[in-house]
Structures are given as structure tokens and as C-alpha cells.
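Same chain as my last thread, 165 residues:
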Amino acid sequence: MMQEFKALIMRGNVLDLAIGIVIGAAFGRIVTSFVNDLLMLPIGLLLGRIDFSNLFVTLHSGPYPSLAAAKSAGAPTINYGLFLNAVIDFLIVAFVIFLIVKLVNRMQEHPEATPTTKPCPYCFSTIPLRALSQLHIGVNGGVIEALRDIGELVAPGEFESPFRP
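reply #2:
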């Protein structure tokens, strides 16, 4: 059982996932610090010295000068400033991941698509590459021409359709 567990853990996908989670957690902490310590401070100063981490609404009577004072008094609060910080945090992480995925997709080689159809040299329609025969349907729905199984055109005079009026 231990060998099976070791084989599962040592698979490439599991290791890649574990490395991605560790790097993602570290990156998340960096972005959180950027939002809380660098980005929101100048925005708060521009909006009249607002401290976003201290924006809250108490659900209990009594004014509290800060979020820390409300929490120490045990008052229930809605911390919309911290929520705003978390939303900005998420948007930055999502945008960076979008840019990384876009860069990786640009760097990967995309194989050229192999064609699955070809133009018919006789009727100018598109037919499958492996087509060995083709029927042409007229306006009235009758068969007016047929291609032989080897793919060559039957001349219009050689083949008489029983459906032709």
C-alpha cells in the first residue's frame, strides 16, 4: 500500500499541482501585502485619509472608534473595508494569472490543422478527403450525376438516372 501511495505522489501531475499550490500561496501573500500596504494607502489618502481596513458597520448599539475596539468589545460587525481589500486582491491575482496563461499559450507551438476536406474538381463543392464516390442532387431532388467508386466523374451522357424527368 505504501508503494502505491509513493507511485501516486511521484506522478508528474501531482508534483506539478503541489508546486503550483505552494507558489500560488506565496504569490497570494505577496499580492495581499501589495494591496494592504502599498496600494490602498495612497488611494485612502486621495479619498480623504480613509483607512479601508478600518471601514465597518456595527450591528450592535454603541459607536466604536475602530474595528479593533469593536472586536475587543465583542460587537458584531460588517467589515466592508476588509472585503474591498479582498476583492482588489482577487482581481490582481486573476489578472496576473490571465497574463501568465496568455503568455504560455503564445509560447506553445500550435500544430497546423490537417485538412479533412478537399474541393471537388467537378462540382466545386467541398467533399471529405477520403471520399470515393459522390452523388450530385439536382434542384428537383433527382440524381443527375454520379462518381464512380474510384473517384472519377461519370460523364453526363454515360449515366442515365431513373429519377431524371
